[in-house]
């Protein structure tokens, strides 16, 4: 039984499957569900300072839309999910949030939006599995 489940979402199909599994487990355990989307600011973009800021604001807008979708989806399934938007390295933020929120299960997809074919895990799911102190559900 879990009391707080954190699911990381990035707009990929795998993340959706992680969310579906997390919703199922939240229902069974009567657990709180936190849905986290992390915006990773690009290293360098464009020639002007404002370009990077504009780019980040587009990414934030996208992340908000993704989270609103998930909140609505959770509502339809009878769960009240809390959504979280953060900026930084996704794996670090997922692990930090799990600790800060005292989540006792983390759910992620095995892969995300990255294009590299053939790998079982992406860099985010791999770092979460390797470094988490709590159980990790990896959806395929
Ligand atoms: N920005 C993010 N915010 C929240 N969760 C994320 C984010 N990126 C990835 N995840 C979670 O991690 C899972 C695996 O994604 P990951 O990024 O590791 O794979 P990938 O995109 O295929 O590989 P890579 O990013 O290393 O090229 C996703 O299904 C999602 O659950
Ligand atoms: Mg990725």
Task: Give a structural overview.
With 140 residues, the protein is an alpha/beta fold. The chain has a single domain (4-139), classed as HUPs (Rossmann fold, 3-Layer(aba) Sandwich), CATH 3.40.50. It has helices at residues 13-29, 49-76, 90-100, 123-131; strands at 4-8, 32-39, 81-87, 105-109, 136-139. A five-stranded parallel beta sheet has the order 3-2-1-4-5, with helices on both faces. Helix 3 runs parallel beside helix 4 (123-131). The longest helix has 28 residues, at 49-76. The mean pLDDT is 95. Bound molecules: adenosine-5'-triphosphate and magnesium ion. Residues 8-10, 12, 14-15, 18, 36-38, 40, 90, 108-109, 111-114, 116, 122-125 line the site of adenosine-5'-triphosphate.
Low-pLDDT ranges: none
N- to C-terminal distance: 22 Å
Shape: globular
Q: What percent of residues are in strands?
A: 15-25%
Q: What is the residue-averaged pLDDT?
A: 95
Q: Which architecture would the CATH scheme give at its second level? A: 3-Layer(aba) Sandwich
CATH topology-level name? Rossmann fold
> Could you say which structural class the secondary elements and strand pairing correspond to?
alpha/beta
Largest sheet: 5 strands, parallel
Number of helices: 4
State the fourth-level CATH superfamily: HUPs
State Rg: 15 Å
Number of E strands: 5
Order of helices and strands: EHEHEHEHE
How many structural domains are formed by the residues? 1
Q: Can you give the helix content as a percent range?
A: 40-55%
CATH hierarchy class name: Alpha Beta
């Amino acid at each position: 039984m879990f009391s707080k489940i954190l699911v990381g979402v990035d707009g990929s199909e795998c993340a959706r499957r992680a969310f579906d599994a997390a919703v199922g487990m939240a229902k069974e355990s009567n657990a709180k569900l936190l849905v986290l989307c992390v915006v990773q600011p690009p290293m360098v973009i464009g020639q002007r300072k404002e370009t990077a800021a504009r780019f980040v604001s587009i990414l934030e807008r996208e992340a908000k839309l993704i989270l609103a979708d998930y909140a609505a989806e959770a509502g339809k399934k009878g769960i009240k999910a809390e959504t979280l938007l953060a900026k930084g390295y996704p794996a670090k933020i997922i692990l930090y949030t799990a600790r800060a929120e005292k989540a006792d299960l983390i759910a992620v997809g095995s892969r995300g939006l990255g294009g590299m074919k053939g790998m079982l895990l992406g860099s985010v799911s791999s770092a979460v599995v390797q470094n988490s102190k709590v159980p990790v559900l990896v959806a395929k």
